[in-house]
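Design job #97: recover the sequence.
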């Protein structure tokens, strides 16, 4: 790819507005996580309360993902996104108002977090599946890379900006800024104009459409193989890396050192995104799943030799592998699944991925006390590698190619007498 072709999607009016909306929305999300955490701790000073509020958001989101997929395949996706963003602005604004006025109680935050989880579950499949309708097929890779660049870059900057707001003006104002970003994000979607999809031959019930989505999911080997694999991989990663990682770091490389390790992963994500703006990814799932092997060394090192330098290097490479997979997965989904089924496919993908995360978070603490930190982390690295290898045993995963761009139909001119 050339420099011009890498940034060509931004010259597309629809994508440019969508990109702007995602940028604003992602910045707000990155700030809100740390702001909400400190708002809860200011009220209760309880880690259990914080966990309850976070779970109150995650649970309804996971439960409604499949319904969100049906909604996004049935109605205009941009309109679904706008509704989700506006509803999120209301819920986050209500939390901000309660915190700023000093009236916030944990039960109120639980209710509003659950409401936000509901609208997030409805909006996520539309957000994931709308991109192919905004750019030509030939621009899908650079378009995905530009969105990833925004997300990965703000992963580094967003929490710092959120922390600065929390320290200077308090968590309530930081949450108010997040609510404003949801509103601005919805407004930025207004100029997008997408031709309506062809009407369906017959109207199906929600249950029938869910069954249709499940039938497609199970009949597509590369799709369910990767999703099932990531269900296991995410359980391992969330337990070994996200839960036990800070525990090990506290006794070895220190909290600041752990921050450097996580930052190295984010830098790997960003730099790989820049590379993927120019380098075509022809075998998306093969290269993507090979990239996921890069998460094995950090887990093993964390158990046997938690040295800061080695962990930083391994975490950087893990970020590289994760971004290669992320690009490969989006291309595989967007190029090989019909638009009428894409949102439901993304919803089954998200359900399989998200539902496993709390399992690892809950199970790894007790497991570590029984078998030991080092042993559990090494076993986790080995298990992770085995799951990746099993997914790669699927011929449909290894052999999936980039789908060719559709050939435009030749224009027909009428003959003159």
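Job complete. Output follows.
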């Amino acid at each position: 790819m050339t420099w011009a072709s890498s940034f060509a999607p931004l010259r597309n009016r629809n994508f440019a507005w969508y990109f702007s909306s995602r940028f604003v929305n992602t910045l707000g999300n990155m700030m809100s996580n740390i702001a909400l955490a400190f708002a809860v701790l200011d009220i209760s000073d309880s880690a259990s309360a914080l966990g309850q509020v976070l779970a109150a958001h995650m649970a309804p989101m996971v439960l409604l993902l499949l319904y969100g997929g049906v909604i996004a395949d049935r109605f205009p996706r941009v309109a679904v996104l706008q509704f989700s963003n506006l509803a999120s602005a209301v819920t986050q604004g209500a939390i901000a108002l309660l915190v700023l006025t000093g009236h916030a109680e944990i039960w109120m935050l639980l209710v509003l977090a659950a409401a936000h989880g509901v609208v997030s579950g409805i909006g996520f499949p539309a957000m994931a599946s709308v991109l192919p309708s905004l750019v030509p097929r030939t621009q899908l890779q650079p378009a995905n890379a530009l969105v990833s660049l925004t997300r990965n870059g703000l992963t580094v900057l967003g929490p710092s900006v959120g922390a600065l707001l929390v320290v200077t003006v308090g968590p309530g104002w930081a949450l108010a800024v997040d609510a404003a970003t949801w509103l601005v994000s919805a407004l930025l979607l207004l100029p997008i104009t997408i031709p309506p999809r062809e009407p369906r031959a017959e109207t199906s019930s929600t249950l029938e459409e869910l069954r249709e989505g499940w039938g497609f999911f199970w009949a597509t080997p590369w799709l369910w193989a990767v999703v099932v694999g990531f269900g296991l991989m995410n359980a391992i990663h969330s337990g070994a890396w996200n839960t036990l990682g800070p525990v090990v770091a506290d006794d070895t490389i220190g909290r600041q050192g752990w921050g450097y390790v996580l930052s190295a992963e984010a830098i790997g994500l960003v730099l790989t995104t820049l590379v993927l703006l120019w380098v075509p990814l022809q075998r998306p799932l093969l290269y993507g799943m090979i990239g996921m092997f890069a998460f094995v060394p950090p887990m093993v090192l964390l158990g046997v030799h938690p040295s800061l330098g080695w962990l930083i290097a391994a975490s950087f490479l893990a970020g590289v592998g994760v971004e290669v997979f992320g690009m490969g997965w989006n291309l595989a989904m967007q190029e090989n699944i019909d638009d009428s089924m894409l949102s439901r496919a993304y919803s089954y993908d998200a359900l399989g991925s998200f539902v496993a995360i709390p399992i690892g978070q809950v199970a790894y603490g007790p497991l570590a006390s029984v078998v030991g930190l080092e042993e559990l982390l090494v076993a986790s690295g080995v298990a992770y590698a085995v799951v990746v290898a099993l997914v790669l045993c699927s011929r449909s995963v290894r052999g999936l190619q980039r789908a060719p761009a559709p050939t435009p139909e030749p224009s027909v001119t009428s003959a003159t007498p």
